[in-house]
Each structure stands twice: as structure tokens, then as C-alpha cells.
Amino acid sequence: MPETLLDVRGLVIEATSYPPGEPPKDVTLVHGVSFTLEKGKVLGLIGESGAGKSTIGLSSMAYGRGGVRITGGEVWLNGRDILKGGAGGLRALRGKEVTYVAQSAAAAFNPAKPLMEQVIETTLARGMMGRAEAEARAVDLFRQLGLPNPETIGKRFPHQVSGGQLQRVMTAMALCPKPDLVIFDEPTTALDVTTQIDVLAAIKRAIHETGVGALYITHDLAVVAQVSDHIMVLRHGKTVEYGTCQQIIEAPQEDYTRALVSVRSIDHAEKNPDVAPVLSVQNVTARYKGTHFDVLKNVTVDLPPGQTLAIVGESGSGKSTLARVITGLLPAAQGRITFDGRDLSPDLSGRSRNDLRELQMIYQMADVAMNPRQTVETIIGRPLEFYFGLRGAEKRKRVQELLDQIEMGKGFADRYPAELSGGQKQRVCIARALAAKPKLIICDEVTSALDPLVADGILKLLLELQAQEGVAYLFITHDLATVRAIADRIAVMFKGKVQRYGPKSDVLAPPFDDYTDLLLSSVPEMKLGWLEQVLDHRKMEGAGN
Amino acid sequence: MTRLPLAALIGLVFTGAYFAAALLAPWIAPYGMAEIVGDSWEPSSSQFWLGTDSIGRDLMSRMIWGGRTTIFIATCATLLSFGMGSILGFFAAVKGGWVDQVLSRLVDLMMSIPSLISALVVLSVMPVTIPVLILVMGILDSTRVFRLARAVAVDIAVMDYVEAARLRGEKQGWIIFREILPNALSPLVAEMGLRFIFAVLFISTLSFLGLGVQPPMADWGGIVKENKEGIVYGIPAALIPAFAIATLAISVNLVADWVLNRTSSLKGGRGA
């Protein structure tokens, strides 16, 4: 009979929130959640932001982050209720029986100490092994996790290894004290897809080989399907559905789970490319002031009016820089940009008010793209006033029309951004861009900070608005699922160059170049065994070469 | 509107009382400012509530008239320093480049000389009148405000909403006053409470050294100066202005804290 490692019963977690300028109030974050985890198994906790998944994960080492209190329920680990252990009991537990892998490895390491010191620190502090033994174990783990130069990588400092490697080192740190349970809190969310797949494979192998039990927290169902045995879907601090991985993916029972499984299935027919482009970027090269490194090298792309050009690439590929060059925030060193048939001044200060009006931008973080001290009416109304001289009742009427267009309706005009949800904020930003009646909107990772279902809604809205207003989008993203959903043409960027460019149907069809192939095959798919399939395929190809 | 917190209430009452006394001095002071009404250093009595000073003037009246001068100068100097310091600070942050360099280095230069010394040098060659005092104090203090305003604004100027305003083609004025100022207000208000008190101390110090408000006009620093010999004989006259400065400092900052709390709400002060 399988041995139960972790048994959580009726967990209730509360916190006190302190909105500035208002009286504090108590909120319940988790409402009576129960689950069990057997030794050596992996349970995936999945949900959107605010679902309580991290809070539940941390509670299994009896920890509440930032004023969070565990007010009800029991957490049994190895046959003990750890909530009753007191501080001494917890000290014996944490870092020995339970360890934790955080989302941002870069923020979790001390930049002043070499990696090895940090990996074996807990093990030594707990007196579980001697230094030599601990180091030998760490090197073993480095090898298991597929890190390059396992013997010597421990001598390096955190800034000397890549983000994906650092995440694997942190996994080694968590596994070093031979814990029974490891909590993985979004370990691959901050990584590029091509890196994510390696880290995912390494974590899966390490879990398997060390026989540790794990809680795997993420918002990406496709990722969790690759590593877990069971999955628990959470929403608003409650369990929506709890079952085996196979059941959740292949036969979801609840509507919400079904929506999560089928997310990003928007069908978008490609438009005819043979029209004179509204935006044409020709041989653009750009570098940042004071550097000699070209961030963009000879980039040429065209965008027909009323269509969508997706710029895809990993972080550092130069895709956001391209947006800065087009908007004039970073004047191009060479090359030329034409907009609606006329030459566009490379520098922002040389552009006419009409140029500025016709080229609008929407940002990734809607939170910081709106002035928190202005009401929605001021935010959307300003472009109306600025470009069209609308005032008073006329302006208010137009603001309401725009709010209706972004499906928000009445009652929002007097609100401040802090009174809106993440999806609503992004909608207001869209309305602000739309208010200028632009010909082109640059969308810089507009859905990356949003939960999948909300992101879906935003993409649908953008497509609808394109059909209504005939506006063109330059859509910058690292997410290929989004690209499939919205693009008419695609430019794949790699190290500042356009690697592959053309209509969507051409770019996404074989034969691929090596990089595009790597990028496309790294996007997690919502099916079991996808990870193994891809890795086997790559191994075979590697052997063939 | 939520109920006023106790601390803010206390602060408001005291600050209000001081400012009211300053405004209404001609009506509430029992005697004239420079009127000799008794012997020197008489103890407090029903006739002279706080006693008399070194040459027999009523100390209560001197305190009220002195408070009027001190608070007036400090308020004007603070407003001047905030007006100048914050606008120049925002301007430097928004412009960047050589404008920022020139302004910042100029401020560094001014700050490298202790402000009391530069004030003494300037006031020893200039006629010591109230407008000159306000100007000197305001300009010297604006360097501190400049530093704070620039530091706060540099962080705000890189936010996406400021970039969005630039891309829209907004002028510097809109960016400074509509995008940056409302978001920089909280730290500036907090600093204003502190700066006002420093201004009170500064004018008092100048008067004590004889380069501030000139006799026979009263101000709190001057009252300390005139009565300092009395301390040796156990006469508390010189301590009364000190007490007034301390209570004013605390109450003004209680009010500033409350204003800060109210302005830092991002929901327009409405409850959630």
C-alpha cells in the first residue's frame, strides 16, 4: 500500500489587507482545501493569480508569507500535524523534510557567494552531512540535472550562469538535504520556452531519480501535465477539480477546467497579404546610446493595413527594441521606416502630431501604463482632448462609447486604475489607444501578464476591434499560442536578426530552420507525454547528425 | 468621510491654535509688542500670564507677536523653497542630460557650504529685511527639496504612463504637472512638514545670532536671545519659545502624517 507523505485537511488561510488610506480588513484566501500526496508522487496545483496556489504550497511547510495566517485545518507530514509543532518543530522540519524552489532564481540567490556554498548551506547547517559528503552529493545532483561541468560549476557565482541553469542549481539546493517533499513554485514561469523545456525535463528526471514527493505550482496547465501524477485546479481559494493528471486533461468535469484545457483555441483566418503596407521597416539597425553592440541588425518587415504582424522571439532577441525604434523612442542608427506611404522621422521630436496619433502603443504591464492618480475618464479622455479637441459632454459621450466598445459598460468612467482588475486595466489601455483613431497599434506583450482565460478575452477583443476599425497590429510576444491565434504574418527574431519572416501559413509550416524548429517544438502542448516525445525526437535527430 | 484619527485631531487643534494666534495677534495680544509694562523678569501673574522679559515687556504678548513673525517667515520660505525646488527638480528629471547635470551640480555646490554659514555671509552684506530673509532661506532650502523632488521624479519619469504621454506628444508642462506631480505629492507633503519646522528653527537661529529679525520686532529666536541671561538666575523666559517651537513641530508633523495617509490612497480616498 502506498505510503501517505502529505495530508492536508480542511485548510483555511486568512490574511489582513491594509489598503492605503482605508481601514484594514480580514480576507479569507483559502476556504477549506484538502488533498493528499503519496511518497514519490507529484501533485500539480494550478490556478490563475489569486487562486491561492502559492499560499497552499507554502502552508505545507507551515509558512504564511507576509501576514498570512493559517487559521484552520490540519497539515500532516510524515504522520505529524506540523501546524502543532511550534517554532522548534518547524525548525527541525524546514530545510530537512520540506524544501522550496522559488520562481525567480535570480532573486533567490545571494550574488556575493559562490553557488556551492549556497547549495549545501542548509545541509551543513542541519548537520546532516559533512562538507565533503555534501559537496559530493551536490555534484551528483548537478550531473543529474544536466548542468554543464558539474564538478566546477559550484565555484561560479550566480551572475556567471544562465537563468535556466540557475533554476536547476536551485533545484539541486532543494534536493541536497534529501527532503521528503519539495515545493516547486512556478519554477519555469520566468524562463523562455526553449529554456523551460530543458529545466522541466531536468526537474522531472531529478524527482523521478531521487524519489521525492513534490508539489508543483504553476498557472500553465500544459506544463503541469508533463510532470504531475495528480492535478488540483484551484480558483478563488477553493478546489474546483481534483483528480489524476489524465482525467483532468482528457476528461475534465467542471466548466472552469474545461475552459482552461481548451484555452487559446481561437481560430483566425489569415488575410490577404498583397496590399500596400501601412508600416514598412527597411534595413533598420539600432544600438543603445554609449554601446557598440547592434541590438537590431538589418531588420526588414512590412505590415499591411488592418492586419497583424507578430514579432516572436525569446527575451533579448530585440523584439521590444524594434517597437522602441518604430515609436521613435530609440532612433535607428541606419535604415528607414515608412508609415502610410510617408517617411517617418527616426526621432520622436521630429514627428508631427498626426504621426503620433496614428501610431499608438499598448504595454505589457497595464498597472504602470496608466497614471494611478487619473480616473478612467481622464485616461481615455486625454487623447480625445489632445488630438481632437473634444471637451465636456462631447468628450464624456465618446469615452462612454469607447468603454462600450471594450465591453466594460457604464460605471467605470469615474474609477481609478487601482479599482480595476488586471483584465479591465488592459482593456482601458486598449480604449486609450483606440481613442486616437490610430492606423497602427503596437502591442508589446499585452497578454503576458494576464491569466490564460483573461488573456483569451483580450485577444478576442483585439480581433473584433481590428474587424471594426481596420487598425493594424504589430504584436510583440514570446508566446507562440498567441501568435497562432492572432497573426496574419510572423517575423521570428533571434539575436537581433529576423530569422524567418512571411505569412503565418508559411512561417508555421515545414521545412523549418533550426531555431524556428526549436522554438516551435518547445511550446508545451496540452497532452500527456508531450515532453518525452519532444525529447526523444530531439535525441534521435541529434544522433542522426 | 471617515472619522479623524486622534493624532491628527491633536495636531490640527495645536497647529490651528498657533496659526490663529499668529493671524489674530493685534486683537488677542494683551499688550503692545514693544510696550514696557512692568519690571524686568517679573514672574507669571494674573496680569502677565507668562511674566515679563529682560526689560519689562509682557512675555505673553511678545510670544504672540513673535509667533506671527516666525510663522509668517517660515511659511513663506517653505512655500518658496517647495515651489522652486520641486519644479526645478521635476524639470531636471524629465529633461535629463545636460540640463539635469547643470542643475544638479549647481545644487551640489550650494549644498557643499553649510546653509547657516552661507546665510550668515549673505545677510551680513545685504540689508536684513523680512523679504530678504524669506528669499535667502527659501533659496537655501530649495536645494534639499530639489534633491528629493528629482529623486522621486526620476523614478516616476521612467514609468510606462509617462512614456505613453510622451508618445502622445504631450508638452513638458503636462508631464510635470499632470503625470508626475500627483504621484510625487505624498513624499513632498511629508517633507514639507519637516521642512517647515527646519525653517522655524533656521529663522530662530538667525535671530538668536542677531542676523534675523531685528529688534524691536519680536520673534521666537529673538526672545531666546534677549532672555538668555535669565537662565543663570533660574528665570524660564528663554525656554518658553523653545517649548512653543517643539509643540508646533510635533503638531505640524501630525497633520502632515494624516495628509500623507489620505493622499496615498490610490482609490481617490474612497473606501474599497
What this model shows, in words?
By secondary structure, chain A is of the alpha/beta class. Chain A has a six-stranded mixed sheet, with helices on both faces. The model of chain A has no long low-confidence stretch (mean pLDDT 87). Chain B has helices at 6-23, 25-28, 59-95, 97-112, 115-125, 130-157, 160-168, 172-208, 220-232, 239-263. The mean pLDDT of chain B is 87. Chain B has one domain: MetI-like fold (Orthogonal Bundle). Chain B is mainly alpha-helical and 272 residues long. The A-B interface holds A 19-23, 25, 327-329, 348, 351, 353, 356-357, 360-361, 363, 365, 368-375, 382-383, 386, 416-419, 432, 436 and B 2, 159-161, 163-164, 166-170, 178-179, 182-183, 261-269, 271-272.
Characteristics of this structure?
heterodimer; A: 545 residues; alpha/beta; Rossmann fold; 6-stranded mixed sheet; 20 strands; 38% helix; B: 272 residues; mainly alpha; MetI-like fold; elongated
Task: Characterize this entry briefly.
Chain A: This is ABC transporter ATP-binding protein. With 545 residues, chain A is of the alpha/beta class.
